[in-house]
Amino acid sequence: MSWRITYRTGGRVERLRAGSLDEALALIEGRTTDVPGLAPIDLRVRRFDPVQQVAARAELKGPDRVRAGLDVRGDGSAEAWTGRILRRLVEQQAGEDAYAALRRVLSSMRSVDP
After folding, report:
1. How many CB atoms lie within 10 A of CB 100?
2. 14-30 burial code (b ≥16 CB/10 A, e <16)
3. Domain count, the chain
4. Distance (Å, rounded) from C-alpha 75 to C-alpha 73?
5. Closest by Cα among 73, 79, 65 to 109
6. Shortest CA distance to 18 belongs to which of 4, 8, 7?
C-alpha cells in the first residue's frame, strides 16, 4: 500500500510517497512542525489575521480513496481534516494535538475490514 503526500507552503509544492500510514504521518509531522508564521494581511475592506491564513497544507491520499490532511495556520496552530472536496474538521479529544487526532481518525478508518 502506498500513501501519497502533497505538501504545500507558499508557492512551493512537494510530492512525497510513504509505504505505510505511520511513515506518511511521520513525514507530515516532520514537514509541518516548523512552519514560519505569517503577518496579518490588511486590505481596504477586510483584514486577514494569521489564524485565518493557511501557512502550510499537507494532503494525504491513501488506499481505498482515503483523503485527509493537516493545515498549519499563520499563527502556528494546526487543524486536521478528512475528505476531499467537502473537508470535515477532525475534532481533537482531551490531551490530543492535531497530529494525534489525524492519526486516531486514519487508524480507525484503516482498521475496518470490508
Report:
1. 16
2. eebebeebeebbebbbe
3. 1
4. 5
5. 65
6. 4
- Reported as a single tens digit per residue, the pLDDT across 58-107 is 999 988 889 999 999 999 999 999 998 888 999 999 999 999 999 999 98
Nine-digit cell string for 112: 475496518
**What is the residue whose three cell numbers read 480507525?**
108
Q: Would you give the end-to-end CA distance of the chain in angstroms?
A: 16
Report in angstroms the alpha-carbon separations of 25 from 16, 39, 52, 67, 99.
12, 28, 24, 13, 8
C-alpha cell at 51: 489564524
Tell me which long-range contacts 15-21 makes (C-beta under 8 A, separation of at least 24): 21/62, 21/106, 21/107, 21/110
Domain around 101: 3-110
